[in-house]
């Protein structure tokens, strides 16, 4: 399907999300966006991309993103005092995994840039620790050059890996899937050889995964983004949901769960990014509704509460 068709189907639905903007303190006028939620022991943290308004990825002198961590403080958030700061890093993601010894480990990832390439090349870096406070920004265990939007999911017997290749069968950006025994077995070669879902959407529409969920029946739920547009021209991103069967190598059509018009007005980083929603994490609330944290317009953090009918099949209550 085309991007506009997916958005039109969302706009016909009665179960629209409730939304609000999220303001994070202590950032001195910097942009704050593209968060992910991390349940770390008895704490709920947000990892957030923070950068100057003039930061631009093609200009090494101006590019200054960091990933910082925040925790709840009454009705708002405060910086986490014992958390590391990831300099020159964008768009965090996280998943709890098991190492080969069976120990529970937080696998955390960010995207950085290789400014020695022209244009600058994305490099995804992965870290593993007992929790957020133990993450070491100088010590990634894996780097994957040339790809963003790589996500991992721990299941009972294996690990599912989704990537976002471009070029060839992947066109301007598609989803790939591979399965391995452990996060410690994930390599650039495994990701490069993964199965690509080439026909999931129209060739002019892009897809990316933001978070994976084990649905318990052999399939995987994907919170992700559907997008159109190129650098420097109007770009449109919306939050979406679909499912993947890693064994049968099938994927459902994406279903839009939020568009930029779902949220209150707020300035974008650039005018061509005004129609951008970049979802980060999805959690099922005790009452069955769904909570999603997002970035809007490469400039602000927001959250949406969805009705249970927004996605199918349902998630487990947490």
Mind explaining what this structure looks like?
The chain has 318 residues and is mainly β. Helix content is 4%, strand content 46%. The protein contains two helices and 22 strands. A hairpin with a 4-residue loop joins strand 17 and strand 18 (250-251). It is globular. The mean pLDDT is 96.
Give structural attributes.
318 residues, mainly beta, five-stranded antiparallel beta sheet, 4% helix
Helix count from the secondary structure assignment? 2
Task: List segments where confidence is low: pLDDT < 50 over at least 5 consecutive residues.
Answer: none
Number of strands: 22
The helical percent reads: under 10%
Distance between the termini: 33 Å
Main β sheet profile: 9 strands, mixed
Mean pLDDT over the residues: 96
List the secondary-structure elements in sequence, H or E: HEEEEEEEEEEEEEHEEEEEEEEE
Structural class given helices, strands, pairing?
Answer: mainly beta
Instruction: Please indicate the percent range of residues in DSSP E strands (runs of 2 or more).
Output: over 45%
Shape: globular
What value does the Rg take, in angstroms? 18 Å
The oligomeric state of the chains shown is: single chain
Give a topology summary:
Elements: H1 3-11, E1 18-22, E2 31-40, E3 43-51, E4 66-73, E5 76-79, E6 86-87, E7 90-98, E8 104-114, E9 121-129, E10 142-145, E11 151-154, E12 159-163, E13 175-180, H2 188-192, E14 195-197, E15 206-214, E16 220-228, E17 236-245, E18 250-251, E19 255-258, E20 275-284, E21 290-296, E22 300-306
Parallel strand pairs: 17-20
Antiparallel strand pairs: 1-22, 2-3, 3-4, 4-5, 4-6, 7-8, 8-9, 9-10, 11-12, 12-13, 13-14, 15-16, 16-17, 17-18, 17-19, 20-21, 21-22
């Amino acid at each position: 399907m085309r991007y506009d068709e997916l958005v039109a189907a969302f706009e016909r639905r009665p179960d629209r999300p409730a939304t609000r903007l999220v303001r994070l303190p202590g950032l001195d006028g910097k942009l704050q966006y593209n968060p992910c939620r991390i349940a770390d022991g008895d704490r709920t943290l947000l990892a957030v991309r923070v950068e100057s308004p003039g930061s631009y990825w093609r200009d090494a002198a101006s590019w200054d993103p960091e990933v910082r961590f925040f925790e709840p403080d009454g009705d708002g958030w405060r910086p986490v005092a014992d958390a590391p700061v990831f300099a020159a890093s964008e768009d965090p993601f996280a998943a709890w995994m098991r190492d080969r010894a069976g120990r529970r480990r937080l696998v955390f990832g960010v995207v950085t840039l290789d400014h020695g390439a022209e244009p600058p090349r994305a490099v995804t870096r992965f870290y593993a620790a007992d929790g957020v406070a133990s993450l070491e920004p100088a010590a990634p265990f894996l780097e994957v050059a040339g790809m963003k939007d790589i996500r991992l999911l721990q299941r009972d017997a294996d690990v599912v890996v989704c990537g976002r290749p471009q070029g060839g069968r992947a066109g301007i950006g598609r989803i790939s899937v591979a399965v391995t025994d452990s996060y410690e077995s994930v390599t650039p070669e495994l990701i490069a050889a993964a199965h690509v879902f080439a026909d999931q959407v129209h060739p002019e529409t892009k897809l990316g995964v933001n978070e994976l969920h084990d649905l318990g029946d052999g399939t995987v739920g994907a919170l992700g983004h559907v997008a159109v547009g190129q650098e420097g021209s109007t770009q449109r991103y919306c939050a979406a949901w679909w499912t993947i069967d890693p064994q049968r190598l099938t994927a459902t059509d994406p279903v839009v769960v939020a568009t930029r018009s779902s949220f209150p007005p707020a300035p974008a980083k650039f005018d061509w990014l005004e129609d951008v929603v970049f979802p980060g994490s999805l959690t099922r609330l005790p009452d069955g509704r769904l909570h999603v944290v997002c970035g809007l317009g490469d400039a602000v953090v927001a959250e949406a509460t969805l009705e249970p009918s927004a996605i199918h099949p349902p998630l487990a209550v947490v």
